[in-house]
Amino acid sequence: MKLHRGDICKTGYKTWTLFALLGIIGFLGTLIGRMWLHGFPPPEHSPQWVALYFATIVFTILFMKGVVGHFVYIYIHKEECLNNDQQKLEENNS
Fold first, then answer.
1. What is the spatial distance between Cα 9 and Cα 7, in angstroms, rounded to a whole number?
2. Does residue 20 contact residue 69 with C-beta atoms inside 8 Å?
3. pLDDT score of 85
4. What percent of the chain has pLDDT over 90?
5. What is the dihedral of CA 35, 37, 39, 44, to 10 degrees?
6. 69 vs 24, which has greater pLDDT?
7. Nearest to residue 7, comparing CAs of 84, 94, 90?
8. Are 33 and 56 a contacting pair, CB within 8 Å?
9. 3-state SS class at 38
10. Which of 13, 18, 37, 68 has its CA 20 to 30 A from that of 59?
11. What is the spatial distance between Cα 93 and Cα 63, in angstroms, rounded to a whole number?
């Protein structure tokens, strides 16, 4: 499966680093949002409460997307990099 241009083994670190950063930002946002909701909640069902509630959900989704994307990206392209390395070795041996 080729989802990119260029040599993923040399340039793919940018993408998985981006996924990792999304995961970290999502985790911190979720943590802060949940602490805020439980520690100093605005009046329930007020516009501030609704905004904070949905922001916490968005950060949680961002966290899951970042973590899952990070590891899936590495898993998918690790095989591709290994296959490329094996093909290069076979070409050099021929």
1. 5
2. no
3. 66
4. 0
5. 180
6. 24
7. 84
8. yes
9. helix
10. 13
11. 45
Tokens of 36: 């805020």
Residue 52: predicted pLDDT:
87
- Cβ 61 vs Cβ 26: under 8 Å: yes
The Cα–Cα gap between 15 and 6 comes to 13
What pLDDT, on the 0 to 100 scale, is given for residue 94? 66
pLDDT greater than 80 at residue 9: no
Amino acid in the structure at residue 50: V
Q: CB-based contacts of 93: which residues, under 8 Å, 6+ apart?
A: none
Taking the C-alpha atoms of residue 74 and residue 68, their distance in angstroms, rounded to an integer, is 10
Residue 46 CA to residue 63 CA, distance in Å, equals: 26
Look-up of token digits 């793919």: 12
pLDDT tens digits along 73-91: 777 777 777 777 677 777 7
Rounded Cα distance between 94 and 77, Å, is 26
